Amino acid sequence: MQKIISNIWCNGDAEAAGNFYASVFAGASSHVESSYPSEGLADFQRAMAGKALTVSVDIGGTAFTLINAGDEFRPNPSISFFVNIDPLQFDDETAARAHLDAMWRDLSSGGRELMSLGEYPFSKHYGWVEDRYGVSWQLILTDPDGASRPYIVPSLMFAGPVQNRANEAIDFYVNLFDDAEAGSRFPYDEQTGPAAAKALAFGDFRIGDQWFAVMDSGVEQDFSFTNGVSLEVLCVDQAEIDRLWDALSAEPEAEQCGWLVDQFGVSWQIVPQNMGELMQRPQAFEHMMAMKKLVIDDF
């Protein structure tokens, strides 16, 4: 079971977004995972009665959850997703490039380029695009001789109030989670925009069998982490929920329904791995809405 699932906030269009991703990525799928109850909703949620609450998307074996909600939040490039295109998975490099280019065209339609598609020192073929739903993707033709990484890798960009803290974040997350380790660290050689010398141009770390990338932005940014993309941790029991909650939560005012914000501003959802089963209990939605940290026995 995937331990950490990236959750993407959608403005009432989660089903359409799920269908879009299922059409863009080969072999991807999308389905409604849960729905809002028909009654008992708060005033601000009544328009969602009976509609999809969460939509599950699978891209190359990596699960995402799309949260169907309002316009309170929107994803931004502070959390993006590397799509690693390995030439060895294709007949030749030309076919791999064509596959990447097709995804680029689909994701760019109605979106915007953040880094144009082309050759860079770190890749023969790479581009960074924000799609029509605000989700950012870094499409990269990988080096077959480089370290192996999964098809999809979430990437955290440290900018604004958390500029130059990527190294610190790697150490914090690796020490917090079981079966975790630091991977590569590539520092800037000199001051680069707001990035200090020795800040990370790129780094990564592993939690279980999942990889996460980090970087300190080399360009001034007017955004940072929000609930637009959150990281949901599926916990085996209440003890794990309690431990992670206590270690991660840094903004008491942000605590609600299993959500928290850590010291870097990253949003997390700390939930039991049988959340789907718990939500089938009578009045489970109302019980969840009344909680900050989730307590399994209170569902």
What's the helix and strand layout?
Blueprint: E1 4-11, H1 14-24, E2 29-35, E3 52-59, E4 62-69, E5 79-85, H2 93-108, E6 112-120, E7 123-130, E8 136-141, E9 152-158, H3 166-176, E10 180-187, E11 200-207, E12 210-216, E13 229-235, H4 238-248, E14 259-261, E15 267-272, H5 275-278, H6 284-289
Parallel strand pairs: 1-4, 5-8, 9-12, 13-15
Antiparallel strand pairs: 1-13, 2-3, 3-4, 5-9, 6-7, 7-8, 10-11, 11-12, 14-15
Structural notes for this entry:
The chain is α+β, with helices and mostly antiparallel strands and 299 residues long. The protein has two domains: 4-74 and 225-298, 2,3-Dihydroxybiphenyl 1,2-Dioxygenase, domain 1, CATH 3.10.180; 79-216, Signal recognition particle alu RNA binding heterodimer, srp9/1 (2-Layer Sandwich), CATH 3.30.720.110. The protein has six helices and 15 strands. It has helices at residues 14-24, 93-108, 166-176, 238-248, 275-278, 284-289; strands at residues 4-11, 29-35, 52-59, 62-69, 79-85, 112-120, 123-130, 136-141, 152-158, 180-187, 200-207, 210-216, 229-235, 259-261, 267-272. The strands form two sheets. It has an eight-stranded mixed beta sheet, covered by helices on one side. Strands 2-3-4-1-13-15-14 form a seven-stranded mixed beta sheet, with helices on one face. A hairpin with a 5-residue loop joins strand 7 and strand 8 (136-141). The longest helix is centred in the middle third of the chain and has 16 residues, at 93-108. The chain is globular, with a radius of gyration of 19 Å.
